Amino acid sequence: MIRIVKIILVVFVGLQGLFYFISNAVNWDYAQAAVGAVLSQADAPFYKNLIVPPITNPTLVALATMTIMTGELLVGLISFKGAADLAAKAAAPAAEFNKAKTFAVLGCSMALIVWFGGFLVIGTALFQMWQGAVGVSSFEGAFMYLGSSAFVLLFLNQPDA
Question: What are phi and psi of 3, to 5 degrees?
């Protein structure tokens, strides 16, 4: 039963990545505007001495948006591969099931890279996105996504008997 729960949770991590990729793709203009607002640091009223200069070049904003979306897509694809690998070994001996966790762990880890590394470290700490309304919403959302993905990663990594 625990193995099935682990497989379902990895599928949910994958769906989270895929849904955010699709959402950003179908709302491309808004996605770019949100990323552009963070990179421009226009909403940084508290800290006037910023670590990096504002980025307003449309090409760089588009590249940053595509980088985020690529990460989200990878979360989805890698997690789905991981869930499929786990499903294929769901009835196998514990050693085989544990060995099949590689892509599931990579998918959850990719989620941490996107939402912790990309949003919290780069967006919030480096670009000070916590200071503006758009950035705060992105920060809060990213924290929820990384938290849930980290929980799944920890649960997934528990050895199966």
Answer: -65, -40
